[in-house]
Amino acid sequence: MRDDPYGGKLRCRPGVTAVTPMMRAKEETMKSIGWLVMVLLFSMSALADDRETYNRRAAETDLAAFRLLDLNRDGVLSFDVVQADLNFGPRFNDIDTDRNGVITREELRSYIERTYGVVVTGTNQLVIPLSPPSAR
Predict the structure, then answer these.
(1) 113, exposed or middle or buried, with CB in 10 Å at 0-12, 13-18, 19+?
(2) Global pTM?
(3) Domain count, the chain
(4) 99 located within any domain
(5) CA distance 18 to 12
(6) Each residue's pLDDT expressed in tens, for the chain with a length of 136 residues
(7) DSSP states of the chain as a string?
(8) Residue 2 lies in a domain
(9) Would residue 4 count as lying in a domain?
(10) Torsion-angle region of residue 111: left (phi > 0), alpha (psi -120 to 50) or beta?
(11) Residue 91 sits in which domain range?
């Protein structure tokens, strides 16, 4: 017989460690914490992938909307053309950084990079850099 740290006697063979209900509960708690950490890490990586996918799609949508609205293909959108569009209308002043009343391709590229962290190349290819936009 051995003394139980929680008061009482435990019966076990010599060389065998007695397992108390408290020790078993502590072990189960540690397992639960381990599983919780694994699930949390997995969900965080999934959220990062979702954010990257969202940013890429939003950038693609902005580029496509610009091409559709630029009817004369001069690479410039005026406020008159954009104001009825639900995509660009509300964000016109955010995109028009030089405040000249038009959005150029370069202003749109700059906006996409600032907002979504996606770089638009000269051929309108989207590239997501390794550093997130918040780290800049």
Answers:
(1) middle
(2) 0.58
(3) 1
(4) yes
(5) 6
(6) 445 555 555 555 665 565 567 667 777 787 777 777 776 766 665 555 688 888 888 999 999 999 999 999 999 999 999 988 888 889 999 999 999 999 999 999 999 999 998 888 776 666 666 555 555 4
(7) -EE-TTSSEE---TT-----HHHHHHHHHHHHHHHHHHHHHHHHHHHHHHHHHHHHHHHHHHHHHHHHH-TT-SSEEEHHHHTT-TTTGGGHHHH-TT-SSEEEHHHHHHHHHHHH--EE-TTS-EE--SS-GGG-
(8) no
(9) no
(10) alpha
(11) 19-131
Q: Which residues of 41-51 are buried (b: 16+ CB within 10 A; e: fewer)?
A: eeeeeeeeeee
58 lies in some domain: yes
The β-bridge partners of 126 are 120
Residue 8, CA distances (Å) to 1, 12, 19, 106 in order: 10, 13, 13, 79
The Cα 65–Cα 62 span in angstroms is 5
- Give the dihedral of Cα atoms 115, 116, 122, 123; nearest 10 deg: -140
Type of residue numbered 115 = T
- The separation between the first and the last C-alpha atoms of the chain, rounded to the nearest angstrom, is 65
